[in-house]
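User: Show me a protein chain along with its predicted structure.
Assistant: Here is one chain, sequence first, then structure tokens.
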Amino acid sequence: MKNISFGETPVSRCVYYRLVCGLAANIDPPGSGRIAFLAGSTGALTMPGPLGSVLRQHMQRHGVAVGPIVAHVGSNRWSFLIRPDFPDDDTGPFKDLFRLNVMMVREGVIPLPSPTGEPGGGSRRWIELPRNTFRPSGRVVVDAIRGCTGIDRDSRSLAVHRG
């Protein structure tokens, strides 16, 4: 199973996403070439691209496994695919992240890169390609966002991190 290629058609790409990555990807609407899956056991933290780039470097520098990252070229936003392991009533982390324009996707549709592109000039591409079913803990990624932006967990203050 692990020898399945990444795929150059929407159908073959969906097969890869499903069998290798454990993502219930579909072409939606049928025939469009757009690929997406419904959030559930996999969610996303979506943020501005510059923050995503800093976060990725911060995680790599500190030995934290990054997992798959999708970039939306048109809006310059990055989505880190995660395990959404936050309790439903835990809104604290998201108040801090809201100021950084970071959104948590726990339900709804999460678009994925497709080899056919997207209408309207928007396109998604992989920053970190999924190679298996690994997704980092959402809590770990939020802690890394705090670490690279200077959000202090205790005071909930935001300081600009330079470096």
